[in-house]
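This follows on from our talk about sequence and fold. Go ahead and set the record down below:
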Amino acid sequence: MSDMSAVKQSKPPPLKNEHLLRSMNFLHVAAHCAPTASTAVNMNEGLVRLKEKHTARLTPDLKRSTCAKCKVLLVPGNTARVRVRSKGGDLFRVVSCALCGVSKRYLVDTENLSIQNCPFYPNTHRISTQIETDT
């Protein structure tokens, strides 16, 4: 008898809202791969409707990758302009939508500053495995 058969292999606990996580992940990735801007806007609006229906919160990097006014996916160099500005000793990332002109300022964490922490890094089209829910 081998030692592996005697030891029970424990499975990770199931996620609380796995179906919600899968649906939100699909919509976000589909918006990145959408052939037209209008299709991406429809995907983002569906993501917002799903979030509101289940009272779930989006991760900050997911919220920051969509324009609040016109709901288009913000892609640096394509649909968004990203600049780094300093004010009063703090660094801010200023993201401007190329379609409607809305700009947002986000404080840059200078202690954990790396390209992997940037929400506009190309490999960040993912959703965190933890979804916060309001009770």
Summary: The chain is about 30% helix and 15% strand. The beta strands are 80-87, 90-97, 103-107. Residues 46 and 73 are 13 Å apart (CA to CA). The chain has a mean pLDDT of 78.
